[in-house]
Amino acid sequence: MQTISKNKGGRKQKSNPKKYRHVFRLTESENQRLLALFDSSGMANKASFLVSLLLDREIKMVKVDVGALQYHTLLTKLFNQFKAVGVNYNQIVKLCNQYFSQDRAKRSILRLEEYTKDLTKLCYYIIKLSKEFEEKHLNSKDKL
Questions:
Q1: Cβ atoms of residues 68 and 137 within 8 Å
Q2: C-alpha to C-alpha distance for 11 and 20, rounded to whole angstroms
Q3: Report field, pTM of the whole predicted structure over 0.90
């Protein structure tokens, strides 16, 4: 005897059926752009086009660290202040040599040199802190 398998009818089941649905809305201009891209792609249906558009392209994400941004802003302001101090330093030395006697100019410039040494120490400390900050927070590649 022959065994006859009953056919329930309908389509064959797909091995990997698409079960998930995502819906989004576009404006008129966005829809025109999407249709123009679809037409230029040469693909047969929009669903395949959208899936390839969304999933086959590499997406780059940029993570903004607010703390690092604030640190950079403050460091830039401090750098600008250092430049202003340098300009003022040059102007003061020029004025001291121009209007003061040689002894008085020498004393004033010596005082300026002491302040400059303090600024130099502060500058080295800022550079050290900046390098530590970069090593801890900015150069970590595993924080994506």
A1: yes
A2: 19
A3: no
Cβ(38)–Cβ(46) below 8 Å: yes
What DSSP designation does 82 have? H
C-alpha span between 43 and 45 (Å, rounded): 6
Distances (CA, A) of 116 to 73, 75, 109, 131: 24, 19, 10, 22
What token pair was written down for 40?
């230029």
Number of Cβ atoms within 10 Å of the Cβ of 72: 14
pLDDT along the chain (144 residues), means of 10: 70 86 91 90 86 78 78 84 83 84 84 85 85 76 48
What secondary structure letter does DSSP report for 16? S
